[in-house]
Amino acid sequence: MRNTFDEQLDLLKTQMIQMGALCESAIASSAKALIDGDIELAKMAVAADTDIDQKEREIESLCLKLLLRHQPVARDLRQISSALKMITDMERIGDQAADISEITMLGNIKAVNNTNHIRDMAMATIKMVTDSIDAYVRQDLELARAVIEYDDVVDNIFNEVKADTIKLINEDTDNGEFAIDLMMIAKYFERIGDHAVNIAGWVAFSITGRHVEE
């Protein structure tokens, strides 16, 4: 019985890795679509949200089976219940990556190559999501705490983007619509970072029984 349970726990970890990879890919695609002005890639990033939603349902179903059939306790219970919490944040990451791509598809974005801070935010949030999932799979408390601390980096870049948008408007008032879209995109990246922090917090809970927050 325990062997079956362990195999299903391993399957849960595998599916969490797969969902994390889908989220990372969605963020990367939405960022590249934004920077390159690639509408077709933006459409693909929006479509990827469906795959993330499907993976969320699969993991939720597996977790419920583990809880009902095996009635786990202690660390096993925390690991499963944490996964249930984490997939909600991961699903929201997919939504926000799609939101970024939808703004790109409106066609108001221009000269993004000159606003490197958006690219920096994308790379930083991908790192946070990747590390938070790795921390869960490896049950690495220090890595989870590092993700939570790294959120300060994303917040600092967000402030740089705000400065960029003010500069754009001061240079030319016709940049107003572009600046607003840029701020919306930066806000979505910031929220992705916040979701990664939530994931890391649940990783800490799965290991220690205490939810670590920023």
What does this structure look like?
The protein is mainly alpha-helical and 214 residues long. It has one domain: Methane Monooxygenase Hydroxylase, Chain G, domain 1. 87% of the residues lie in helices and 0% in strands. Helix 1 (2-36) packs parallel to helix 3 (74-106), helix 4 (116-138) runs antiparallel to helix 5 and helix 4 packs parallel to helix 6 (176-208). The model has no long low-confidence stretch (mean pLDDT 90).
Give the gist of this structure.
87% of the residues lie in helices and 0% in strands. The chain is an all-alpha fold.
Q: Approximately how much helix is present in the residues?
A: over 70%
The class by helix and strand makeup works out as mainly alpha
CATH class: Mainly Alpha
Distance between the termini: 39 Å
Instruction: Report the CATH superfamily.
Output: Phosphate transport system protein phou homolog 2, domain 2
Given the C-alpha coordinates, what overall shape results? elongated
The count of domains is 1
- And the CATH topology? Methane Monooxygenase Hydroxylase, Chain G, domain 1
* Radius of gyration of CA atoms, rounded to a whole number: 19 Å
Q: How many DSSP H or I helices?
A: 6
**What portion of the residues fall into strands of 2 or more residues?**
under 5%
The helix/strand series, from N terminus to C terminus, equals HHHHHH
The CATH architecture designation is: Up-down Bundle
Largest sheet: none
Provide the low-confidence segments as ranges: none
Number of strands: 0
Mean pLDDT: 90
